[in-house]
Every structure is written in C-alpha cells, then in structure tokens.
Amino acid sequence: MQNKKLKVFIIAGEVSGDVLGARIMSNMPDAEFVGVGGENMTAAGLSPLFPMSDLAVMGAIEVLAHARTLTRRIKQTVQAIIDSKPDVVVSIDAPGFAKSVIKQIRKSNAGQKLIADGLKFHHVVAPQVWAWRAGRAKKYASTFDKLYAFFDFEVPYFTKFGLDTVAVGHPIADGLIGKYKTVKNSKEKIITLVPGSRMSEVKRLLPLMRDVVDMLCRNGYMGYKFIIPTVETTAEYVKQQVAKWRVKPELVSASKRYDVYAKTYIAIVASGTVSAELAMLHVPTIVVYKMNPITTWLVRQIIRVNWVSLVNILLNRGVYPEFLGPAARTENVVNAVQQLTIPSIREKMIADLKSADDLWRRPDGVAGALIADGIKNTQ
After folding, report:
1. What residues contact residue 194 under an 8 Å CB cut-off, 6+ apart?
2. pTM score of the predicted model
3. Per-residue pLDDT tens for 137-147?
C-alpha cells in the first residue's frame, strides 16, 4: 500500500446503492471519500456534490424528461473528478450516469492525464446481461477496470471480454439472512406497501396501492394494518398523496423498514431490490410494476427471462406472483392477497424462500468488505 491516503470518488444513484456505499465506506476508515450519495453515505462521512435524487430516474421516457438535469450533473461530476484527482472512481449501479461520466473523462486531456497517472474505474452491480442486452458485457469491459458482480454465474459473461470481475454475494444478505427473526402468527396483520424509490415508480404505483387498500377494506380486511416505508427521494410526495386516501396507511422512515418487514404478513411491492430483501426475510410478497407504455413495449422486445424478481430468477420458478404492466390491476393484486391468507399457500411460499438462502451469500466474506478489499488493492 502507498503511504498516502487512498482517495475514492464514489457514486451512488439510488437508495440501495447508498446503503451499500455506506457499508463500503465503513470498511475503509483510512480512505478519503468524495462523490455523490444519499443519507446513508452522508452519515458515513460523505459530503455529496448534489442530491442523489437527481440520478434516481428510470425508463426511456423518464430519462428524456430529466435530460437537462442529468447532463448538468454529468458535467459537474466530471469536473469534480478532475479537480479531486482520485485514485479510483467507484460507481454503484446507476450505469448510464457512470458510463457517461467515464466517457467524458476518457475524452478530456485532463482525464487522460489522470488515467496515465493510474486512475481506475470500478463498478458495483453487474448488469443483467443474461436477461437482456447481452452486448452490454463487452461495453462494460471497455469502460471499467473492475466489476463486482453479486453471483458466480454472472462472472463468465464479463471475463470472456477481459474485464476483471469478482462475485461478492448479494450485499443485502449480509445484514438480513439470520439476523432478523420474522414474527409469525401475530394477531396484528400488517400489509406493507412499497411503491418504489424513484419518483416515476411511486407516481405510477401509489394509485394502484390505494385502490388495493380500498378494495381489501371493502372485502372485509378492515382489521389489517397498512404501512408504507418511505425513502428520502419521495417521502414528501408520498405523505401528500396518502393524506387523500380514504384508508390511511402508517408511514415510517426507510431506516425502520426491516423492523416492519420482519412483522409483515403480506407485502405488495415495486419490482426491485425490496423484493430481494423480503425474500431473504421469507415474507410472502406480491410484486407489481408499471412503466410508461413505450418503455414497457421496448423492454418486452428484448427481455430474455420469464420473471423480474431475483428470487424467481435464482430458483427458476414463480415463487413471488408478479403483475407487470397491464397486469398490474387492482383485482389481480387483491386476489393474490386473498390467496396468501390461505395457510397452505403461505407455507409453501415461505419454504421456497428459505430454500434460496444459500444462493444469496458467499462463504468467503460479506459483500461490503469484499468490495472494499478490491478497492484498496487498486494500486
């Protein structure tokens, strides 16, 4: 190791990346960090360049609508990297933003000098090239110097193009599997609603969840308690919208979500990281998702897997029911909730979720520490 303190420019674009970024930082107490992150990375000592919510955009149409903001943030990030002269740039998910930043750095004279002096680019979270757009693997190899994938089966997709790729396990499993005891047979039946972490997701899914709550209550589920964990990027919007609901759910901060999940009877959630969290906690869950119709059509042309929930993909069967696009309708979700109140169906789902436990983790260490070690060995 060099005597000088390692300087890391770190970029997280959404809540799950912010959580992982904070874990990486905690495993590197002697490093200096600059970059972009949210409340977790801020608590770990980062002073973000700008609000992480500016990057929390998903979908072709949604990205176009925020093009001006994203362009400004890309330029700002490029300049910050050039000014701070880090030893390594670590991007966590947010691949479109990260690749745009790196492309501009590689083109600039100042960036080329930094690269000649040893600047490296590491990326955390491998794109799901086994599901769609396989050509991305080659592009990643020409953009990044090192990739941290979650699963062993992902590694060969990238190493065949010469990209140094290591599997570190799913980082969420480090803090969940075996560490939160789910509450069974509780008299209080909690239905947890998670409409997503991006504003575009929340705006599309919150009305569906409102209608589901209304129909459930009309169908005799008045004794159930509804809870929505909120994230910093959308908390105020969710609060404003829920105030108009006929049946108002309780709002809790994202920092308390695992305590809520552990007590959850049934969850109704946006497709994404939260479904993996709930799978690790063995919580019966229904996955929903809606996108702009054009984005939905584009995805359907190129996707190569039968499911979007990671636990379904890992087990190669539909453990979690998924209602995507036009199928994300109130009556479908309510029917799925009713099915999950049947003891035999619940127990079968829980048993399937438990069977996936060993697929989430690696035996040689936890993800945050393994990624930190890889960054420390950059030079």
Report:
1. 228, 229, 267, 268, 269, 270, 274
2. 0.72
3. 999 999 999 99
